[in-house]
Structure formats: structure tokens, C-alpha cells
Amino acid sequence: MSLKQTITDDMKNAMREGDKSRLAVIRLATAAIKQVEVDERVDLQQDDDRVIAIIDKMIKQRRESISQYEKAGRDDLVEQEQYEVTVLQPYLPAALSEDEINSLIETAIEQTGAASMKDMGKVMGMLKPQLAGRADMGQVSQTIKARLS
Prior knowledge:
The chain is an all-alpha fold. The chain folds into two domains: 3-91, Uncharacterised protein YqeY/AIM41, N-terminal domain (Hypothetical Protein Yqey, Chain: A, domain1); 98-148, Arc Repressor Mutant, subunit A. The chain has helices at 3-17, 20-40, 48-72, 75-88, 98-112, 120-131, 137-148. Helix 5 (98-112) packs across helix 6. The longest helix has 25 residues, at 48-72. The mean pLDDT is 92.
């Protein structure tokens, strides 16, 4: 079963169970997927990688919002955003451990022959498809910068 179909089935289950808050979050995800389908005139039914990228982007937006709301002292909004992250997180593949990420970074640096910050794009270009939805790309970027500096 495709990821898009799984999300649709979960939406139907949330409707049946009367779980309005979960239903609202899942509807946001389906709306984001539908928006991409309409904008790009594609069907994402069989393209799990694109759906993962959409969900990953949504989670990243929520994490950014959480940090902003925490700075503003809006605990009620922080809770809502954290809840949305917990609902969306299961649709992503299992996160990689720090050791796994570090070994992938080392491999990419060796394969690209990266020696300085000028080669950062090559390394990120190689890692992005492998790590999409499985690691925080901001942290990966910082780790690569530290290694290439």
C-alpha cells in the first residue's frame, strides 16, 4: 500500500473514531499532497519519496514554529505544533542513529573527494536522497561543515 493511501485510510479511521484533532492534522497532510499534485499535474499515488518529502517539510515547518512560539512564551501553540509533529512523524521512515549518519557522511566525503567547504554541495547532493525524512538535514549540514573546515 502506498503512503498516500495509508494517510487516506488513517483519515477515514480518524473520522470514524471522532478524533477531530488528529483528523485536522491528517487533512492538512492530504491537502499539502493534493496541492503538489495539482500544481505539478502529477499523481503521487505511487511516489512515496515525494510524499515523504512533503511530510518532512511539514514537520520541519512545525519545528521552526515551535522554536518561535517558545521564544514568544506561547505554550498553548507549542503544544499544538508538537501534537501535529507526533501525528505526522509515523509517516516518515525510521530515523537513522547518529552513528549511521556519521558513517554515511564519511562515505560521501570519501566518494566525492571533498576536501574543503567548496565541496559541501557535492556531499549534500549525494546525501540528500539517502537521508530525506530520516535525519535533520540542518544537523547533517552542520556536521559536514565541521568535518570540512
